Amino acid sequence: MKIAYIGTYPPRECGIGTFTQNLACAMTAKNQQGEKIHKRLIIAMNDFDETYVYPPEVKLTIRQEQQTDYLKAANFINSNGADICILEHEFGIFGGNGGVYVLPLLHHVKIPIIVTLHTILENPSYTEKAILKEICKMADKVVVMSQMAISFLTSVYDVPDKKIAFIEHGVPDIEFDRKQSKSEFKLKKKKVLMTFGFIGRNKGIETVIKALPQIIKNHPEILYMVLGKTHPNVLRSAGEEYRNYLQLLIKNLKLQNHVLLLNEFIDETELFRYLSACDIYITPYLHEAQITSGTLTYAMGSGCAVVSTPYWHAAELLQDGKGRLFNFNDSNDLAVTLNTLLDNPATLKAIQRKAYKYGKEIKWPRIGEKYLELAKSILKTPKKESIKEEITIIDPLLLPPFSLAHIKRLTDDTGIIQHAKFGIPNLKEGYCLDDNARALLMSLMAYNQKKNPLALELMPIYLSYIHYMQNEDGTFRNFLSFNRNFLDIKGSEDSFGRTIWALGYLMGNAPNDAYYQNGKLVFFNAVPIFERLNSIRSIANTIIGICYYLQANPGDEEMITHLKNLSSKLVNQYENNRSKDWHWFENLLAYDNGILPLSLLHATQILNDEKIKSIALESMDFLTENTLKNGYLSIIGNNNWYVKGEERSMFAQQPVDALAMVLMYNQAFLLTKDKEFLNKLFLSFMWFLGENDLRMSLYDFDTKGCCDGIEKYGVNRNQGAESSLAYLISHLTVLQAYEELYQTTDFRSANLSKEMVNN
């Protein structure tokens, strides 16, 4: 067999990576002639912007937050002759909300799939449950490492028993002499307690440290060793706060000679050398919700006596005298348990013997054989022929790589320059509020979806510009010269509305509280202006901002009232202008048209008003009929627009109109779950890449910017902020829509092949 493995992989410091490597080695071990019977093909998961120097067996990498990498991986597996695919699943290693990016990968892989589940939640969120159910549906077999995991899969996730295989967590076939190891580490006179693995607050290490004073009274030779780095996710969010807390606790309890914190990620050989010098291994985790523990399995596999809190895997594994349990967060109970064992060497030896015996049964060569038997049984099962239907025409692989290079080029420490000469910033034109609001929206989306570090770096610049341009009465100035002189006293209502949109989105998607509080301050200073707006596009943009705010703050009755009032203004505008053959808000189709139906689609989601929904869908259909009837997006030109009863303009087509269409169809899909809207969304996006009246791409692959529009003479090659931001927001929306599609629980209705295979 040729076996494709998907998971993290060394040298990335990750328990799943070590598991993937051990499993792949165990399944592709050499025969007596030194030949590998089975071949391995590793696809390694990278985290965020980290890259690693992988060994030769790693043939491809997937960047965690890059959706297109997942589809490329599926194509790579399909084209390289692999017979079966084994996926190591852990929520934190895959991108998207709840790790949803893995679903398109599994959907596109054409060979049988085995999924090993390292975490199964008893009380998952809606998204976590939906994603794991879909993973299990697409898998030919699901491997779990505890009996409780089987119970959860069948009762919580509705996975059939016949699809589940129980295979224990493997341990390396490494052994050291206990006395020799103690001698090498100069621990012959010590009783060694140990905990290892990534460090974080949920590990409960402080419980052990607080128990030590009671133990030292009877056993002054005690040394507690904690081996492990701080977990990377903890480092990103809180730094070394927890390790510093532990060090202060050690100092306050005067335990410096009894506790050793080793901030290292050590290899398996060295780890087992430490474990062989250990008398008692402790897992003091604070909560029961851990279905699998590799560290616990390793400790038992090395013959350690284990003392643990009764989290799920420990309660199951330590039955029949293979270890001892103590209560969660109970230092007194732990002290009593440890003193009892240390006072009774014969009991301690008996537990070590049972652990050692169990460890012999789960060495990696045996576990590898079990996986091989499972793979062979799947491949022997006859497969029914089936035709795989496409869910939607959205193809993320057609998108150019996402890049903020041109946006960075346009941005200085004041804000984003509004215009460019070709791909070069035009400093003479200065800055405007509209574009900085769009830039804030785009950077928030880019950071939330891709964890793009440059987006996070640029974000405060745009927010600061917005704050700087706000007047005392809540209105905003719009234009600022390059030398930072105000060029107006009060900006347009449209610029006001776009700013409220960005601020509303910020309050639902802020990267931290400082951004939230700043955005909230500016947003609420502007609230008194809401009811005085007259421009229907300003009203529409403001509605969208209010809706994003209400998604995060649904109980704000005053804001709901504003939403109702502004929505009523648009409804009245529509009813006053609608006729039999003209279903629109005014007597012409002008600019940024899709924003009007889009705003009412957002309002419908909050207010659940059938009249608003009906107008939103009817006006959207009218706009679709006038712009998408030829199978591609033909935007209403801004020369003379499209006045009722007259000829429509073909040229001066602008990217913001394409953006509005993309956003409109995405919101329509979210509201109705009708996949046809995703097809229209992608057609609208492809306007940027050449599916337009001129059949010319507006995206510049060299500068990574977007041209300013389609003119009668051809493409306007200037690449200002408005156009480039419209492209990037559209790009991110396409990826978001693709993710949303795989988050819907009924997306498989159009995909029959895996169901037919599994049945």
UniProtKB/TrEMBL annotation:
Q: Name one GO molecular function term.
A: glycosyltransferase activity
Which SUPFAM superfamilies does the protein's record reference? Six-hairpin glycosidases, UDP-Glycosyltransferase/glycogen phosphorylase
Q: Which GO terms describe its biological process?
A: carbohydrate metabolic process
Q: Which residues cross the membrane?
A: none
Glycosyltransferase subfamily 4-like N-terminal domain: which residues?
102-171
The UniProt entry, under InterPro entries, shows: 6-hairpin_glycosidase_sf, Glyco_trans_1, Glyco_trans_4-like_N
Name recorded for this polypeptide: Glycosyltransferase involved in cell wall bisynthesis
| Organism the protein comes from | Salegentibacter salegens
